[in-house]
Amino acid sequence: MWHAPEHTDAPTAELDTALRGGPFHVALRAAIAARGLPLQRVQHHLSRHGVKVGVTSLSYWQQGARRPQRPESLRAVRVLEEILRLPDESLIRLLAEPDGPGGRAGVRPAVRTYRSLLRASDALHRLQGELGWLADGGLRTLGHHERVRIGARRELAGREAHHIVRARHDGVHRFVAVHHGDPGCSPHDVAVHALENCRTGRVRLDQDTGVLVAELLFGTRLRSGETFLFRYGVEDGTAGVSREYVHCSAHPGGQYALQVRFDPGALPARCHRFSQHSPAAPRTARHELSVSGPHHSVHVVEPRIRPGMVGIAWDWE
Q1: pLDDT: is 115 or 202 the higher one?
Q2: How would you list the strands of the sheet with 199-206, edge to edge?
Q3: Rounded to whole angstroms, how far apart are CA atoms 60 and 44?
Q4: Measured between alpha carbons, how far is 257 from 303 in angstroms, rounded to an integer?
């Protein structure tokens, strides 16, 4: 059984600020100081949880000389959140963000920070609420195939989505599509096109976060258990250089396939797939992908959609 740390005062204002804004080593140092624990005691509590981390490593972490990266180190960070009585993922999420304004030397800054994803999530819930769309909208996804186009300027030029769904109850007649453009995009200039078995209804957007939602009307009301196929496209091209495409799912479902196709004149140096339990969690299941053949594309296939995130990222020379 876990025993409470020796010091149980409420977090200080310094700790609150560090947890909100980071960087990781400052937040860790403030959390340890707020609990009044020497590093030897922190190490002792970690060992009681079956996690072995040296005092030297802990010292390096809170000085910013090193960052936890290995799976065992990331597990230690999650245990530290419990030991130090911090909110879940409050330290882990800071590891997904660069240290300092320009990021760590030699490390490419994240495309989207955890804070920007939180703002986008808040905007998405608000926009979906304006359209009266809650949870899964009464639809179960049997198949979802996406084709993403990266243009000659290395931008997210557009994408096409093909959905196969089944109605959970009688009367379902629409779907609300979501598009989250790359940083700097202009959703006012993004176009949504109904391509097959649907037509575009109301569109709502949030300029600050680049989130756009569009209502796709089926033109018929489905019966419970009835399947339906529809297809739509999004024309974007309004942002700068694109470095990844991520699919987020809140509900389990059927097969998901993602294909990213690059302009022949703008091929990436490297590509890899990844998955992520949540925006704050570390990326796992990373596998290199080869851009080869006449189609200049890479793809991933997930036999079953699980809640979380799956995507493809790439590096430019």
Answers
A1: 202
A2: 172-180, 211-222, 199-206
A3: 17
A4: 8
Contact 253, 227 (CB under 8 A): no
Tell me the C-alpha distance between 222 and 175, whole Å.
Answer: 12
| Torsion angle of C-alpha atoms 314, 147, 163, 283, degrees rounded to 10 | 0
In this model, does residue 3 exceed pLDDT 60? Answer: no
Q: Would the pTM of this model clear 0.85, i.e. be above it?
A: no
Structure tokens, 268: 């990436």
Fold of 120-315: Immunoglobulin-like (2.60.40)
Give the pLDDT confidence score for residue 8 in this predicted structure. 38
**Residue whose structure tokens are 């960070």:** 77
Q: Which tokens sit at 219?
A: 């033109």
User: For residues 239 and 184, is the Cβ–Cβ distance under 8 A?
Assistant: yes
Other C-beta atoms within 10 Å of 220: how many?
11
Q: What number of H helices and E strands is found in the chain?
A: 7, 13
User: What are the Cα distances from residue 191, in Å, to 125, 160, 181, 259?
Assistant: 21, 12, 12, 20
- Rounded to 5°, the CA angle 125-128-133 comes to 120
Give the model confidence (pLDDT) of 133-174 as tens digits.
Answer: 988 899 999 999 999 999 999 999 999 999 999 999 999 999
Query: CATH 2.60.40: which residues of the chain?
Result: 120-315
DSSP lists the bridge partners of residue 274 as 311
DSSP 23: -
| Cβ neighbours, 10 Å, residue 162 | 17
Higher-pLDDT residue of 120, 227: 227
Tell me how many degrees the CA angle 94-284-158 measures, rounded to the nearest 5: 90
Contacts of 303 (CB under 8 A, 6+ apart): 255
